[in-house]
Every structure is written in structure tokens, then in C-alpha cells.
Amino acid sequence: MEEASLKIFNSQVLLPFSLENGNMHAFLGPFIGQNKKKFGNTLLPEDTSTLPFIHSTEIDLALFGDTTKIFQAFPPIKDRHLQWLLRVEDVMKSSWAETSILEFIQLAKFDLHLFDPQMLLSAILFWNRETRAFEFPCDFVCPTLLDIATITGLPPVRDRFYPDAFKEEISIKELSIIWDKKTYLAFITAHVGQSGTPVSISEHIAFLMYWLSACIFYTPSLQVPKYYYILAQALHLKKKICLSKLLLASLYTCLDEASESLFRESKPRNLSRPLWLLQLWLNAIFEKKLSLTSTFTPTCELEGARLTTLTPRKRSLDNFATYIDAILSFTEFSEDLAPFIRPTLTGPSWLRQNNQVRNISPDSTDMWFGFLSWDVIISGMRQKDVRLYPYQPQLFARQFGLSQMKPLPLRRKEGIDDDILHLPNRRQPRHLIKEHLSKNISPHQSQQ
What are the Aminotransferase-like plant mobile domain coordinates in residue numbering (predicted)? Predict the structure, then answer.
């Protein structure tokens, strides 16, 4: 790391401090001076519609009785999908490893399409579109780049993907990619090569486009759109794309859209984008609390592959109570909310060997700089779809095993001088929802 960047890391990212008993801790910066604590954000006017849906005056769970149309963008994987993946992998394995997507592509061999609708919707009830975080009783929690790296094997440091910044080095007109197929299966049939023949450039790019749209970003149209061509071409050419930040930004977009749809009179429909990532993250934080288990042992050495086996198969409206109670039980921050800071982690060696903050090696500084540094992340494959989001790891410092300053609220709030420090596993009382649920869910709804 360059000397200037290292100075920034030491002065703004990790801020060491000691307690009276001599114990050393670290804040995740940047640090906001005390004279600014009462600042009200005038750029983001107060908007009660961004509050989590759980704060609504009435919650009608009957809206979520039929979840088929809510999750119709996630069709089950067919045998032809796996056959095509294995055919292309046999030839392109070394290329994928060089591009740092080999482990990530392994997840497409598992049931990423499998969801627990009640678990997902229960979590979305707590999503705040202003802070881009879940408001649990113990304060903000959210998937971070560390979680994505553990689940997918994607590193946090690579080149940022701007949809219009990458040139079309291989003309799409030169490739025999067919766009008039109406289903994913038809797209596979049209582009998979014959057994025993080489994997052409056209087939590889077509596979990557299919993988991005059908296995990663889940387009609502259930087709492979042309706008994935530039990203697929960049990966084919071994460009160092930071897919982890692109994936996290896309999850933010997904959660914003899903949360906003809860306020409509009709239930949300056709949710898309990487909700599979939310499912695996929830499996990780609920694994011990809800005793999620599986008898299936995945062959892939990746945390995400193991987590796919934990998704509950039983779907029932009654499960809402179980998941809401589980979320409300997080009255203090616990190790369940930082599931990937542990020595038994499975995953890529570069992360598994350096996933303890206190044992970080000098060679891992760049990686942890990516995990812990504030950044602007971008979602969208086309210029008109681009959305910018702040990546704010300082809001989730305890998920990295660090101490945490209480985040400055976006709205004005009296008395924010009180209790300004979060220490790991220290109880943080916060007004939340359980009484609200018992008062505002009608007896008819609770019996659904």
C-alpha cells in the first residue's frame, strides 16, 4: 500500500483507544468531532416514508399469504444449467481463477433460487431506506463486504465497474449470440456447444451473460438481456472488476425497492436482484438462534455453499412470528451478528487465514482496507439504471470485531450525547416493535 494511503488508514480507518483498565480497542472511522454531533442533515429532508415498515400503524400479514408472485423472478435451476456450467468450467477454470470469480461461480451449482419467503420478508420489514441498514433492537446491522467475501469468495479490492466506461473490445455483432429466446432454458439450448468441441469466445461470453442474469442479479424478465454483454465481455477479457461492490450495491437497490413496495396497498410483486445473498446472510446470523441444520455436505469449500443447505424448506405464514421474535431478541449485539469473524471459517485461503482483525498480517492490509474504508458503490448495468450508494462500514464496526461510535442520525434527535459508545456485546436498549406487533396485528391476521 502506498505511504499516503497507509497514513489515511492509520488516521481515519482504525482509530485505537484504551480504557481505564488498559484494554485496547479500536473505532472504525472516520471520526466525527463532538462539536458536530448535533448537526442535522439538510441534504436529506425528513421523510417518514423511509422508516422501516415495522413502524407502520398496521401490518396486514395476509398480504404475504401467497408469495409465488413475489418471488417469481427466481426459477428453479435445471439440469441443462449444470451441464453447461461444467462444460465451460472444464476449459475456463484457470481464466476464472485469474479473474477471481472461480469460487463465486461454484455457488451456481447450488440452490441459490431456494428461499424462505417469510424469513426474507420479516427482515425486509426492518430495512431503513435512509441509512441502508436493518434496524434491529441492538442498532444497525447489514451485510458488509466482509460478508460478501466470505459467502462468495469475491475480494473487496478491484476496479470499479462503470457501465459506460468499458469499451466494446469484441464487437457483439461478431458473436453468434441469439436474443429471440424467451426462457433461460431456451437460451442455454441455443448457445451450448456440442460435447467434445472447444468452448468458443461466443459461448463463453454467452455463458457469463446467462450466469450474471439467471444466477447472480436475477432479472425480472426471466431472460438474458443485452445490457449484461459489457460486463460479461470484461470478465472474459480478465478485467479486474470489483464484483463484490457491484453485488452489494445491487442488494441495496433490491432492498430499497422491496421495502418501498411494502407500503403499497397491494402486496409486493416480482422482487428481483440478488435476494439470494440476503437469504444466505440471514441463514448465517440465524443459524445458532434458530438451530438451522442440514444433513447435506456441500463439495465446495466455500461458506456460501454451506449456507445454501441451511435454508428452511417449510413455508408457512406462521413462521413470521418465529422470525420476528428472532430479530427482536437481538437486544444486544452478539457473535451471531458477526458470524464470519471466527477461526473455523471455510472459504478462500486469502480470507480464511486472515479473518481475525487482531491477527492481521501485513500482506492483508489492502484487503482489510477495502473491507473497512468508506466508499461510493454503484448499481446498474446501464447508465439510466445507475444508482450511487455510500458504503459505510463505520455503521457496522462491531460486525468486524471493533468498537463502534453510535452513528450520527440523519434526522434531528434530542439527547444524542448520551451513551455514545458501543462496545462489543454491550447491551444497547432501543425502542422497538414487539408491543407494536401485538397491538397492531389483528387477531384475524395473527391466526393466518
Answer: 101-412
Amino acid identity of residue 210, one-letter, is: Y
Judging by DSSP bridges, how do beta strands 139-141 and 375-379 pair with one another?
unpaired
Domain count along the chain = 1
* pLDDT value at 120 more than 60: yes
Residue 139 β-bridge partners: 136
C-alpha atoms less than 13 angstroms from C-alpha of 40 in its C-beta half-sphere: 7
Instruction: Answer yes or no: is 20 within a domain.
Output: no
pLDDT at residue 418 in the model: 39
Here the contacts of 6-9 (C-beta below 8 Å, separation 24 or greater) are 6/365, 9/365, 9/369, 9/373
Classify burial at 91, counting beta carbons within 10 Å of its beta carbon; exposed 0-12, middle 13-18, buried 19 or more: middle
The pLDDT of residue 42 is above 70: no
273 lies in some domain:
yes
Tell whether 421 is covered by a domain.
Answer: yes
> Is the distance from CB of 409 to CB of 140 less than 8 angstroms?
no
- Give pTM, 2 decimals: 0.82
| Alpha-carbon span 217 to 209, nearest angstrom | 11
pLDDT tens-digit series, residues 378-413: 998 888 888 999 999 988 989 988 887 766 544 443
Distance CA 136, CA 140 (A): 6
> How far apart (Å, rounded) are the C-alpha atoms in residues 163 and 183?
25
C-alpha distances in angstroms, 311 versus 1, 119, 168, 384?
40, 9, 40, 35
CA distances from 79 to 18, 224, 311 (A): 57, 18, 21
Q: Which residue has the cell 435512509?
A: 130
Is residue 29 classed exposed, middle or buried when 0-12, 13-18 and 19+ CB atoms within 10 A define those classes?
buried
Residue 442 to residue 325: CA distance in whole angstroms: 17
Neighbours of 143 (CB within 10 A): 24
Within a domain: residue 196? no
